[in-house]
Amino acid sequence: MKQTRGPSDTVFGDLCGVFRLLELRGEYESFIVDLESELAFLRHIAECKLCGEEAKTMVNREGGNDSWWSNLFSGMLPEILGEEQASVEPCPRLDDYGDLEAFIAARVGWRIRRVEGIRGDAEIELMDLKDRLNGG
């Protein structure tokens, strides 16, 4: 989760638990907004011809470096993420697809599903924080 400041950086953090819960609520809300933005970008890549062509260019580029899109299309992404875990949906690999468009669609769809899962978990945690703040 993106953190705007560490708990030790808070002037009032040691005063009460409610303050820390309020701080966490803000961090979760910010994190969820960031995830929504990422989902919008991912859905756009799948729908926009120009961005789809740029994705093909990135995949074809020597070394597959696409830091512009956080290495979404990098051949090394499964290793970077530690995708050997059996419980995680495997990251699509270029070698498993006959053409770039199918690979890009699979990788974008895979990332959308992962982000939606992360967002769902964050929303559950946020609801729990709100319940705790409301005395529930």
Can you give me a brief rundown of this structure?
With 136 residues, this protein is mostly helical. The protein has four helices and no strands.
Tell me about this structure.
By secondary structure, this protein is an all-alpha fold. Residues 1-8 have low confidence and may be disordered. It is 60% helix and 0% strand. Helix 1 (17-47) packs across helix 2 (49-60) and helix 1 packs antiparallel against helix 4. The chain is elongated, with a radius of gyration of 19 Å. It has one domain (16-133).
Number of strands: 0
Helix count equals 4
Beta strand %: under 5%
N-to-C terminal Cα separation, in Å?
24 Å
Low-confidence parts lasting 5 or more residues at pLDDT below 50?
Answer: 1-8
In terms of quaternary structure, the protein is: single chain
Q: Rough shape?
A: elongated
What is the CA-based Rg, rounded?
Answer: 19 Å
Order of SSEs, N→C? HHHH
Structural class estimated from helices and strands: mainly alpha
Helix-residue proportion: 55-70%
Sheet with the most strands?
A: none
Number of domains: 1
Q: Please, what is the average pLDDT? A: 79
